[in-house]
Amino acid sequence: MYPIRLGLVLLAFTVGNAAADDLQMIISGKAIHLGGPSDLNEDNYGLGLQYDFETRSRWIPVINLASLKDSNNNRSNYVGAGVKRRFRLSPAPNPLNFDAGVIGLAMTRKHYNDGDPFFGAIPFISFANDWGGINLTYVPAVEETAYPFWYFQFALKLAEF
Questions:
Q1: Alpha carbon distance 49, 19 (integer Å)
Q2: What is the CATH number of domain 2-160?
Q3: How does the average pLDDT of the chain come out, rounded?
């Protein structure tokens, strides 16, 4: 639970002290495992928040946090910060964007690292417009008994600052 508390503090600090672009609700969803036993949970439902900072550059700083059901049907929590590169696929007034980036994160999992936070970095891409989008993350195997997977999330804009 430590990463979620830390993320809430960071989110509260940045919302109050930075010019921001938008706050999104993250709806965690589907995992597609690349190998492994057939009993792995691929319905990784959960909720989170993502905050994209305003920038005049195509490089956009982001912070996020979420809690979700992991591949072993246990609660998993993370808080992260990173950067994404924006590519506009269509013009305003409702542009379609393709983003590619990396998130460094602190995460807790019941059966990994004795439930204590561990750190990692994962790549992601997203397709989004002004109201929401779809995130796709590749998660590599982090131990011998783990399997890599693709992970899908939906993002819905909550507020623009």
A1: 17
A2: 2.40.160.20
A3: 88
